[in-house]
Inverse folding.
């Protein structure tokens, strides 16, 4: 196999594949190699072949872009992990003290960690740099600052995996919020 053919085969086997549950609900994204293994084991069926074929010595395999699992998989709703990015998206990139919308936010602990405040959703907000400096190690009451809303953990979202990912055109019919 030439170098170019080998690279093309590697690109095809690493291509993203939408994995649907038995009820056609989007479940995950895997690579084409994993999808071919699931099909070969009889655990999934090919729904869409939008990429062509991979040739072995004795067989030709269609490269899937969408597969559907044969059996229903019940996936529990996972709590969202607390991260800077998740807090900023929850707060819509808006300072929770002055209301300024900016990408230059910092994390602020309402009850400062130096005073025993926990690093949990309910105690962390996005704050612009001037507000965070003004509040410093004080509570909002002590700093005479008002929160625009009470921070809460985001609701579990089974589709959060797809929110910040490129959605291929052939997947759109199975992604409910794109219609």
């Amino acid at each position: 196999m030439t170098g170019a053919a080998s690279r093309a085969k590697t690109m095809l086997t690493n291509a993203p594949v939408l994995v649907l549950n038995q009820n056609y609900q989007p479940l995950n994204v895997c690579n084409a190699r994993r999808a071919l293994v699931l099909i070969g084991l009889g655990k999934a069926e090919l729904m869409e072949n939008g990429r062509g074929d991979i040739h072995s010595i004795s067989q030709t395999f269609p490269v899937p872009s969408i597969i559907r699992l044969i059996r229903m998989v019940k996936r529990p709703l996972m709590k969202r992990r607390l991260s800077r990015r998740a807090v900023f998206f929850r707060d819509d990139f808006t300072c929770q003290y002055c209301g300024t919308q900016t990408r230059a936010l910092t994390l602020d602990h309402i009850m400062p960690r130096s005073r025993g405040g926990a690093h949990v959703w309910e105690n962390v907000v996005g704050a612009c740099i001037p507000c965070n400096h003004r509040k410093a190690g004080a509570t909002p009451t002590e700093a005479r600052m008002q929160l625009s809303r009470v921070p809460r953990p985001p609701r579990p979202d089974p589709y959060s995996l797809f929110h910040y990912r490129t959605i291929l055109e052939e997947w759109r019919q199975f992604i409910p919020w794109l219609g």
Q: What stands out?
A: The two ends are 42 Å apart (CA to CA). The first strand starts at residue 16 and ends at 20.
